[in-house]
Amino acid sequence: MGLFGSKKKKEKKQESPKAAASVEPKKAAQATTTLGIKDVLLRPRVTEKAANMTSRNVYTFDVRKTATKKEIASAVSALYKVTPVKVTVVNIPSKRVAMRRKRGYGRVASFKKAYVSLKEGESITFA
User: Fold this and answer.
1) Are 61 and 97 in contact (CB under 8 A)?
2) Which of 50, 52, 65, 94 could form a disulfide with 60 if both were Cys (CB 3.0 to 4.6 A apart)?
3) How far apart are CA 91 and CA 118, in angstroms?
4) pLDDT tens sequence across 21-34
5) What percentage of the chain exceeds 90 in pLDDT?
6) What does the angle CA 71 – CA 74 – CA 79 come to, to the nearest 5 degrees?
């Protein structure tokens, strides 16, 4: 009563090179969507801390949650015509807050912010 190796292995059919060339795998670039400048940078973050950091040539922006550092750097350079040296990204989690008029609690949405360091001598002026 042999359980293993009782059947002969079937030979694999070899495909012709033309048939293999005609079937192309899907490109990964088509699956990912490229975001525009306005889709990456939502708004400049205007706070007291952000204003103090501008003296050190670091500017703060609210960005899309799915944005990468490279996308943020290219969006800043395209929109403001400056050269980003370093991009630091911080994910801010959602927070539970007390409702003023109703009983119970609500949530403040989570977001992502980016600190963009610029090349020495360059600056961004917000209107």
Assistant:
1) no
2) 50
3) 21
4) 555 544 443 333 45
5) 63
6) 120
Tokens of 44: 């400049």
Copy the structure tokens of residue 1: 């009563």
Instruction: Tell which CATH architecture fits domain 40-118.
Output: 2-Layer Sandwich (3.30)
DSSP string, 78-116: HHH---EEEEEEEEEPPEEEE-SSSSSEEEEPPEEEEEE
Which tokens is 74 given?
A: 């290219």
CA dist 77 and 72 (Å) reads 9
| Every domain of the chain and the residues it spans | 40-118
Q: In Å, how far are 1, 91, 119, 124 from 73, measured between CA atoms?
A: 68, 17, 12, 14
